[in-house]
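fold-stage: in
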Amino acid sequence: MTVYVIALVKFTQEEYYRRYQSRFADVFKAFNGRLLAADERPKVLDGKWTRDKVVIMEFPDEAEATRFLGSPAYQEISRDRIAGATVLSLLVKGLP
């Protein structure tokens, strides 16, 4: 079943986050995922937006999403993401 990883990002030290961002594509391409959106100016339709960015990734299944997120290569670049932003992330199951 298709799953989506949705990340709501609030920059704390943007230079670290930008370094993470610059390395992300090279790591991500080794996995069976698809980057669907990475928007720093989403249009708010309802509620109050308190973040700086939304990222949506698609994976064929939860195992592949977990493989990506737990990979040594992603863990290495994630240090800059953790240093540069607070992130609320969700794993959302797609519809059958």
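fold-stage: in (second)
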Amino acid sequence: MSTRTLIRGGLVVTAADEVHADVLIEDGRVAALAAHGSDAAAGWTADRTIDATDRYVIPGGVDAHTHMELPFGGTFASDTFETGTRAAAWGGTTTVVDFAVQTVGRTLREGLDTWYAKADGVCAIDYAFHMILSDVNAHTLKEMDKLVQEGISSFKLFMAYPGVFYSDDGQILRAMQRSAENGGLIMMHAENGIAIDVLVEQALARGETDPRYHGEVRKALLEAEATHRAIQLARVAGAPLYVVHVSAQEAVAELAAARDKGLPVFGETCPQYLFLSTDNLAEPDFEGAKYVCSTPLRPKEHQAALWRGLRTNDLQVVSTDHCPFCFTGQKDLGRGDFSKIPNGLPGVENRMDLLHQAVVDGHISRRRWIEIACATPARMFGLYPQKGTLAPGADADVVVYDPHATQTLSAETHHMNVDYSAYEGRTVTGQVETVLSRGEVVIDQRKYVGRAGHGVFTPRSTCQYLN
């Protein structure tokens, strides 16, 4: 049965345009847009009409960096694909790109199949995967080619976490050379993990065990150094590079310098670096553990450089790096030793709202909000124009957004499976009202009406900034 939904009377905001238009949805896709009140729109009929008067009508968010059920530090991220994708929908995100993990000594295929199994049949919204390379060797390099053909077109490498995910410069170069040939995109966690481990050992020997020392040993200069090194390795390989979770102004400067040379180098930051700081890491009574993530939170003065980078397009994407661990029972594994605190923050539900607050505060424009949260991540990772925009033929992933509502972010009211909010007590302007995923209503007037298994795996083409 063909179903038609009509969204009437809203301000349609995309990365390219703002227009008062009605949106007609048919069989899970955007069928047409027409100016509100026009003859074309007046003639449309539908099974369901959604009134978007005084609301924004925006593409569903694309969060290109999440970690559901990630094994880390002897535990697992507390959101499953079921709980995490449902929380994403509550926050106006309709596609996540999560990370399948290769275990050292195992194949990429085994890791990918494990993640397919975790997500299959339980997601509330659509999902895709990147592949974490933990063991670069002749066999896994060949496997990269097959994965690109399968729609897994990006590969994450780590210059951090020796003994877990770490790759040395030779392995990184080989993977970059392979991606230059097969069209894949290398995503880099850029921190000098070898040097950081020395500083961790020295801090603990001095009795510096509190969460705030996590930020002090993971120095901004070691993020900048690794970012610089990754850029030079990518230049040698003739490969594009995407640097994840950029947190330090010195690292932004490295990206800006590379982009000024015309190099295919891209950068992502996350809401925690834009809205939180080392002040949070220093909260007393071990509360700072809630904010332990890597790259770490920086002193407040770094925020201005990140906002500027987003305005000048030296940073192109805001993702969450959503990787939640409960304060009780998980974060407290690191009491008395900050190096044992599981690294990661919850945020998949908060990203669209926090970035709308940035519009209200004058950091970015409305269209830039949609660009960094929807359109660019979709283009960067080969999902556009199926995702990330509202245009005829696109998936009907649509959010009706109330820009005037105010809400207070809190663990009491969020839907992420974690016992604290990184933004507890923060009041923001703007709230998701109704969410459609491929034309199906998932959130209806602030009520969840979706279902586990609606979301499907979405294969990706290669990065659309390189064609």
